[in-house]
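can u pls check wat happens w/ uridine-5'-diphosphate-glucuronic acid
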Amino acid sequence: MRISVIGCGYLGAVHAACMAKLGHEVVGIDVDEKKISDLAAATAPFFEPGLDDLLREVQSTGRLSFSCDAAAAAGSRVHFICVGTPQRHGENAADLTFVDAAVEALLPHLSPGDVVVGKSTVPVGTASRLNRRIRDVQPEATLVWNPEFLREGHAVADTLHPDRLVYGNEDGLEDNPAVSVLDEVYASPISSGTPRLVTDHPTSELVKTAANSFLATKISFINAMAELCEAAGADVTQLADAIGLDDRIGRKFLNAGIGFGGGCLPKDIRAFMARAGELGADQALTFLREVDAINMRRRSKVVELTRELCDGSLLGKRITVLGAAFKPESDDVRDSPALSIAAQLQLQGAVVTVTDPKALRNAQRRFPELHYQQDAEVAMSGAEALLLLTEWKQYRDLDPYELSGSVATPKILDGRNILNPEKWRAAGWSYRGLGRP
Ligand code: UGA
């Protein structure tokens, strides 16, 4: 099938490459010329494990091309909208400028029978509005909302083997002609057993925001428990292991630490609250305000714990922050709790060095005032305290015995609770976890 993918960021670039991998003929379209020239040269414009190899593999088949011109979408049967929906400046609501612009740019190139497929995360009600706009211009085209659930760092596998497919169409019916078109697009994952649900437009939009809100709530729940454990002298990692054994609760997404960040969970829960307010249902989501507040409190808590670790004063203390990305296996620093903590420490007088295997270029752009060092060994040498804030494998594997010779004072704050406290203490380190005695 001929497919166009509009928007080639984290979501669209991976989606375009994966659709070509599934055997389709794909054109990726974006207004950013640099992104398109990188992708055309089989180089991902961001770090995502496996994506460069996949781009090379599918481009050699001739099934994947890129263009800056929306007219390149003409002739495709299915058009995926994969542009970003960031938080509006100074507001909680989502900014739909890019979604609206993508649809407007596509309209002149739609033919009868075309299916426009929204994948971006949007406020409920957007799909029906866009469907009306599409029908005004091309009455025989239609819009399906097909939310994306991929995680950065696992994006290729999540797209090729999703845990579910949701198709939201205008009547919510299984026999809507767009359903069989999408079944053809996703024939491979469907044949290997991926569940597929057909809903109406608003339900499909809500599935995505509800899923991210649930995940955010789970993380803030365990971080609230960490606050209690801190007050009571208990251990939140043991608590999570014990409650997680109840399979109604589950152990996943119960890792307490510095909280969630990234380009999705924080802005999605805020946009959800804003939309609920517009719909007169704000009370239903008041709890998300608390989820957000618990999450943001983790960052100040780490600053306070670091001050304690540094004998009550941050002034002039040489602190090395391990990790800048919002999570490992990603170079994304959007709303990264690690960088936000590094910046607060620096503002309070500490001399902060940040290291990260992949994210320093992006970090530098966002916080140019911080000092960066690519080489982790150099970054840690002479440090008066280490803060492990993104759980990259190389930081998990640090050897406390080896490291104690190169730092000025052996003190570590484990912001992700991934190190073994006994081992670090036995090696002479002063160890602090979050929500651990
Ligand atoms: C999230 C969702 O997990 C995806 O399903 C969704 O498709 C995506 O948003 C999106 O809306 O596009 P992502 O932002 O890539 O994916 O990252 P997550 O793996 O969800 O992690 C989010 C944050 O939560 C990270 O900062 C991570 O460190 C933190 N986290 C995660 C915790 O603090 N504790 C945990 O137990 C798990």
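The first strand starts at residue 2 and ends at 6.
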